[in-house]
Design a protein that fits this description.
CATH topology of the domain at 52-143: Cytochrome Bc1 Complex, Chain D, domain 2
Number of helices: 6
Order of helices and strands: HHHHHH
């Protein structure tokens, strides 16, 4: 019983000492953390590609956007692109020749497939919240991956 009393008083004394050591401390509930991004990355983790004057992106810029989207949206969890040395998931097919494989399998271009996916991608892609611009970037990125 005596041990419990000493332990209780010791704990309360320690707690009181902490509170006394930091008088007037109260967390600032109005303060919001500042978000800091790496240069060139936006809040979603995608590579930010500026469009000066509203001009359309050049194919290499679209491919850069597609590369960022491919990574940030988790495509690499299932798909590799061996021609670009992207070694990742093994659940989905290697996309090195998607630009020719998709039309042969689905009778539509890669971009059309990304806009209206079928099969497994018909259930996966809509949940990834990929914009039309992002899909254009992915198609351009994968077109650059095509092996002769």
């Amino acid at each position: 019983m005596v041990v419990i009393v000493f332990f209780g008083f010791g704990f309360l004394a320690g707690l009181t000492g902490i509170v006394a050591a930091v008088p007037g401390y109260s967390p600032d509930s109005e303060r919001q953390p500042d978000l800091v991004y790496n240069k060139g990355l936006g809040p979603s983790g995608q590579i930010a590609v500026e469009e000066p004057g509203g001009d359309p992106l050049l194919p290499e810029d679209l491919a850069l956007l597609g590369k960022g989207v491919f990574s940030s949206k988790g495509c690499v969890q299932c798909h590799s692109i061996s021609s670009l040395d992207v070694v990742a998931g093994v659940y989905g097919p290697d996309l090195s020749n998607a630009i020719t494989n998709v039309p042969n399998k689905y009778a539509k271009t890669l971009l059309e497939f990304l806009r209206e996916p079928e099969g497994v991608m018909g259930t996966v892609l809509p949940g990834k919240n990929v914009s039309d611009r992002d899909k254009e970037g992915i198609a351009e990125y994968l077109e650059g991956a095509a092996t002769p």
